[in-house]
Amino acid sequence: MKESIAILCGGGPAPGINSVISSVSLVFLRSGYEVIGIHEGYKGLFSDDPNTIDIDFNFADDIHKQGGSALQMSRHKPKANEFSTKFFMDHNVKLLVTIGGDDTASTANRISKYLKSNDVNIQNIHVPKTIDNDLPLPPGIPTFGYHSAKQEGVRISQTIYEDARTSGNWFVLSAMGREAGHLAFGIGAACHFPMIIIPEMFDKVEVTFDKIINLVISAIVKRKIEGVDYGVAIISEGVFHFMSDEEIKNSGINFSYDDHGHPELGNVSKAHIFNVLLQDKLTEMGLNVKSRPVELGYELRCVQPTAYDLMYCGMLGFGVKKLFDEGRTGCMVTANPVGEINPLYLDDVADESGKVQPRLVDINGDKAKMVYNQGLQFVEPGDYESAKKFVTNPQELDFRAILGW
């Protein structure tokens, strides 16, 4: 039987997935391997009747520049009792290529150990994908899809800023990010937004809705002092990850709850939540400011990859073949800015349970300090007297006091 490689995609879409599938396929087809694409991620891999596609040159060549994923994705996380060597043995698979984020990488790590324990000699190489940029790659190396999603986010956000200027309104943007604030930070910094709120900011204090809303109002009041009655604040949805269920329940927002009593955050617009709470606080403070919510999430995931990600994903795809030829397994492929390909072993970035730990924004790094100290607009002690024209207690809007900085 001809030797083959299998490719699957887990989690949610990110620009560049098809570029990776294309590059991996082309380089292995050239070396005489059969390339099998597996639909529905790990669910498909361990299905009794997996839905697969034999990838040929024309298919791989055609999808290279497309957004979305030619292989249907799934967030299914197989339990240990679902693991099987059947698919690998039936198709003479020599390499499993997994494309995904931290959950997909963690499962790949478990599968790699399972195959080894069953004396099945199959290599596994993971390609790190997420628009959240939160996989623990070496410093300065992004996850693919991040830059393309950020570019689309900036395009939308610049339009929103022009709407704010034109209409004299404020907009509250919420950006995807799970527990990391890379996307919100990147978009907000690129657009010179007056307020950027990410979970990593709260390194010295508890994350609460009141603090978040006061930070937004701090920017609103500072702009008023400067004679500007419009603006945009961007908030990472990752702040919810660090809030207690009690804080979320006491927000006054009507959530639905899962079987374990946890708020089902995926069913509501985060931007809407922030905007409702902002309007309540503005009314309480006697500030007549109009604001509108905008969600940045699904609009970013399936755009066509930018030139950066097209090139980067090609390097990652070709890098898979390089690591395979070197006998590497149980690792992520990394490509640095000069094109050097190196493995990052999953065991080295996973905790005791095998879960890959997320990379957060380095809030104490030079970039973050520069943006927060020089790029934002907020109330400081020197603004107290001027701010009293708009609010009675400007101290509660002091940016650094709110964060304990």
Task: Describe the structure in brief.
With 405 residues, the protein is an alpha/beta fold. 39% of the residues lie in helices and 15% in strands.
Describe this entry's structure for a reader.
- The structure is a single chain.
- The chain is of the alpha/beta class and 405 residues long.
- The chain has helices at residues 17-30, 41-45, 57-63, 86-90, 102-117, 146-167, 182-190, 209-225, 245-249, 270-285, 298-301, 307-325, 366-375, 384-387, 399-403; strands at residues 4-9, 34-38, 52-54, 93-100, 123-128, 170-175, 195-197, 231-236, 291-296, 331-335, 341-345.
- The chain has two domains: 4-145 and 305-348, Rossmann fold, CATH 3.40.50.450; 149-300 and 364-403, Phosphofructokinase domain (Rossmann fold, 3-Layer(aba) Sandwich), CATH 3.40.50.460.
- The chain is built from 15 helices and eleven strands.
- Strands 3-2-1-4-5-10-11 form a seven-stranded mixed sheet, sandwiched between helices.
- Strand 10 (331-335) and strand 11 (341-345) form a beta hairpin.
- The chain is elongated and about 80 Å long.
